[in-house]
Amino acid sequence: MKSMTGFGRASQASKTLVANVEASSVNRKQGEVVVQLPRNYAELDSEVRKLVLGKVSRGRVSVSISLEQTDNAPSPISVDSKRAKALSDALKSLSHEIGQPLDINAADILRAPDIITFEDKQVCIDSVRAVIMPALKTAIDSLVEMRSREGHDLKQDTLERLDSLEVEASAIEEHSPSVITRYRENLLRRLNEAGLEFDLSDERVLKEVGIYAERCDISEEITRLRSHFAKFREYLDSSQPVGRSLDFLCQEVNREFNTIGSKANDATLAQHVVTAKTELEKIREQIQNVE
User: Fold this and answer.
1) Quick check: 85 and 44 in contact, CB under 8 A?
2) Torsion angles phi and psi, residue 28, rounded to 5
3) Distance between CA atoms of 20 and 37, rounded to whole angstroms?
4) Computed from CA positions of residues 99, 103, 109, 115, in that sequence, does the dihedral angle turn out positive or negative?
5) How far apart are CA 101 and CA 93, in angstroms?
6) Which domains does the chain possess?
7) CA–CA distances in Å: residue 50 to residues 24, 131, 242
8) pLDDT (tens digit, 9 = 90+) per residue, 113-125?
9) pTM metric for this prediction
10) ∠ CA(100), CA(103), CA(105), 5° rounding?
């Protein structure tokens, strides 16, 4: 079981390029990838998304990719020596023609077109891919590892709370027969107080008690709760994404406890139901962060 929260960072270098990748993820019902990389290499966006979604099924993953050139990278400044010499020769010739000295300086060279040019050369896409993709894979692996560690902690916390739910369910099951006994005693007491003499074996009393017993029977709900608890533990041990399944099970468990609370008109059972639903709500909060 994995959490949906994680972070990973990695770098990969070649002789001329260094790729730095950071990946972070937060809760989302679906899988979503947001990619930030240099505009000149936007065509790699789909490859980045495909790799991330191959590792992460749920959560919003933000991937930030930056590129740096190493000291071995070609200089972005180009100098046309032939044009510079031609300019110098032309000035010397003009100086001779007009009889005045015309010295060439740095400003003249900078103002002259195409002698010194500053180029922002786009690196070959294959060279960029060769550094970005390994760094991305390492960063995503680190992110997934962190999600696994947090998922383990979530699992342990959920198992402890699941134990509490099973304790409450057992207490409810153990106490439920006394509800019928108490109802029968109260019924006879009210009849006696009204001056009506009825025997415990009176058919009318037995019928009334039987109707009440059927109406407040919670054996089916207890059985379904046991089944849900077992399935819950099975999902918690799964290596597959189970967040949606666990969320659905929480809804089903909540429904069973609600039914028990409405069926059993008993203060003790009501208290057990309240305690169980409190623990269940804490489980649901944790489950919202499970992949």
Assistant:
1) no
2) -160, 145
3) 10
4) positive
5) 10
6) 6-72+124-147 (3.30.230.10), 77-118 (no CATH), 149-287 (no CATH)
7) 16, 17, 21
8) 777 665 555 568 8
9) 0.68
10) 155
